[in-house]
Write a structure and sequence with these properties.
2 domains; six-stranded mixed beta sheet; Nucleotidyltransferase, domain 5; alpha/beta; 12 strands; four-stranded mixed beta sheet; 13 helices
């Protein structure tokens, strides 16, 4: 049998606003787990875009609609530049996650800006986007969506752990895929590092220089979210309502805040992956050496290293896979993960 291939561009913007991730991926049609990331890059946001996206949570519906179109146009421009820079000639579709500005699934709300029609108009390519809305309409959390990719593309790992704006995890329990957000990571660490004029805490060195505020650590670990059973997910709103006020009430020394919150992250993650030696760790937080050391301490394990390419671009890769599943009318959202009424094929498809 002759192998056929599908070529896709995956586009991902995370809550930590590290930048826009773009991947050009080749999937083997019959066996998508045989994939190749051909090109990948992260484009940092300008200060203007960073502020627009960061503050969108406070915008009116009219302003968010305007941002949806302007950000869609921005994405189209960036994708066109990516195609030109790498001389890409074959693209079957674009799969774009967009950027989450509101996520309140308990109220039936999830909003990702980045209008698919505008991306299609700019690029003259088919676009799959808006992956979360349908799941929320079906009573689900609309997150996390990556686990279907974990299930198909990374079967060799017991746990797939992502350390991005939030940490989320995916694994098989009772013969079904389970996944949930564990706790905030870079969305909190970067917030406090930014007050020092730095984009992030390189290798966790600043955190390592601080001491632990134990009353704060105890208060963080006692937050109600950690007592809930999955399915569950986190958003910026929760961090702004519960985490930032708690930290600011206990501590104002940035190094101490970083050290304490990093310990909190390690405790929450460590108890879930306890003693497992088959953990795939990806996302920007995987480069935080001190954080990984503390996770290994509480998990009593050793976390294997993977390529920088997979660490940086796994989410964009998986969203391109979700797009492929949607185009083929196959399930890309699992009710065991999101709590939706049924497994379903989520996302909207628009052609130029």
């Amino acid at each position: 049998m002759i192998n056929t291939y599908v070529y896709a561009i995956g586009v991902m913007s995370g809550t930590s606003l590290d930048g826009l991730d773009l991947v050009y991926v080749k999937f083997e049609t019959q066996t998508p787990s045989n994939f190749q990331i051909i090109h990948a890059q992260t484009t940092p946001y300008s200060k203007e875009w960073m502020l627009l996206l960061k503050n969108a949570i406070h915008s009116s519906p009219k302003e968010i609609k305007k941002l949806d179109f302007s950000y869609g146009a921005y994405l189209g421009t960036q994708i066109n530049q990516f195609i030109a820079d790498y001389g890409i000639t074959k693209v079957d579709f674009i799969a774009s996650h967009g950027h989450t500005v509101l996520h309140q699934p308990e109220k039936g709300i999830t909003v990702q800006v980045g209008c698919g029609a505008e991306i299609a108009k700019q690029t003259s390519l088919k676009v799959v986007y808006d992956f979360r809305t349908q799941d929320v309409q079906l009573g689900g959390q609309g997150a996390p969506l990556v686990p279907i990719g974990d299930h198909v593309l990374f079967q060799d790992y017991e746990y797939c752990l992502n350390l991005g704006g939030f940490s989320n995890i995916s694994f098989v329990a009772n013969n079904q895929r389970v996944a949930f957000d564990i706790c905030p990571v870079n969305i909190v660490l970067n917030h406090y590092v930014n007050t020092l004029g730095l984009p992030y805490d390189s290798e966790g060195k600043l955190a390592a220089s601080g001491t632990i505020n134990y009353p704060l650590l105890e208060a963080l670990n006692a937050l109600d979210y950690y007592q809930k059973n999955p399915p569950k997910s986190l958003g910026l709103e929760w961090v702004q309502a519960f985490v930032f006020p708690l930290i600011d009430a206990y501590e104002n020394d940035v190094a101490i805040v970083l050290r304490t919150f990093l310990e909190h992250i390690a405790i929450q993650i460590g108890k879930i992956i306890f003693k497992s030696e088959a953990v795939l760790v990806t996302g920007g937080g995987a480069f935080n050496t001190f954080l990984l050391e503390r996770i290994e301490f509480f998990a009593e394990n050793t976390i294997p290293l993977v390529s920088d390419e997979l660490i940086n671009f796994k989410e964009a890769l998986v969203f391109s896979f979700l797009g492929l599943l949607k185009i083929n009318g196959k399930i890309n959202c699992l009710k065991s993960v999101t709590g939706a009424q049924k497994n379903h094929s989520s996302g909207s498809i628009v052609s130029p």
